[in-house]
Amino acid sequence: MRKMFNKVTRIAALLLIASCAGSLFAQSTQSGAYDVIIRGGRIIDGSGNPWVSGDIAIRGERIVKIGNLEGSKANHVIDARGLVVAPGFIDMLGQSETALLIDNRSISKLSQGITTEITGEGASVAPQDALTLAQLQPELDRYHVKVDWTTLDGYFSRLAKTGTPLNLGTYVGAAQVREAVIGDVDRAPTDDELE
User: Fold this and answer.
1) Is 46 left (phi over 0), alpha (psi -120 to 50) or beta?
2) Could you tell me whether strands 84-85 and 89-91 are parallel, antiparallel, or unpaired per DSSP bridges?
3) CA-CA distance, 63 to 25, in Å (whole number)?
4) What local confidence, expressed as pLDDT, does residue 21 receive?
5) Same domain membership, residue 61 and residue 100
6) Are residues 45 and 116 in the same domain?
7) In Å, how far from its chain's centre is CA 125?
8) Which of 31, 67, 97, 132 has the fewest CB atoms within 10 Å, i.e. the most exposed one?
9) Is 95 in the same domain as 187?
10) Which residues pair with 67 in a beta bridge?
11) Strand partners for 169
């Protein structure tokens, strides 16, 4: 079990290190050791091209070189032989808004290589009011989560205080808006409610 966890953790680490690769490829102008070299991985760049075998050099928060870096030195070397190194994956139907306030580490997402989540399909984290919170309250109480926001701006301000390793985007769910206006009732809205 521990061996499996270490392999999953290692793969996740490789994915995270490479997660911002798209905009960070740059030629190094500095000489000397790199901070990290990921050696011998199957590099998938996210463009749809086939994977290539190679090394990735990182300095600071930037990927500075990709290719055969044999003979290059680094403070840390990760052996990625037999593993895939790729940009982070996007979960297009995530529902971690509240979970991120309970435990902001996102281990279940990151261990799968997910670095971005889109939420808000149907229900969303805002708008919030007494009607939307009525059904959620037992679960919120169980985890000691206090909803102190009513808007998306308020939620993201709260999330910024605790932090998260995920990139998070959201829709405003149609079901959330309906519930904020008329609650959880089975009827058509009035003209005023619809407006």
Assistant:
1) left
2) unpaired
3) 5
4) 39
5) no
6) no
7) 16
8) 31
9) yes
10) 55
11) 118
Work out the end-to-end distance of the chain between its first and last CA atoms, rounded to an integer number of angstroms: 56
Looking at residue 26, what is its pLDDT? 41
The residue out of 41, 59, 85 marking a domain boundary is 85
Segments of the chain scoring below 70 in pLDDT:
1-32
The token duo for 51 is 């994977």
Residue 92 token pair: 């297009």
Co-location of 150 and 57 in the same domain: no
Domain boundary among 36, 58, 85: 85
| Greatest distance between any 2 Cα atoms in the chain | 72
* CATH number of the domain where residue 65 is located: 2.30.40.10
> Domain limits at 77?
2-85
Is the domain of 45 the same as that of 97? no
CB 99 within 8 A of CB 110: no
Neighbours of 111 (CB within 10 A): 15
Smallest Cα–Cα separation from 127: which of 159, 172, 194? 172
Q: What is the pLDDT of residue 31?
A: 53
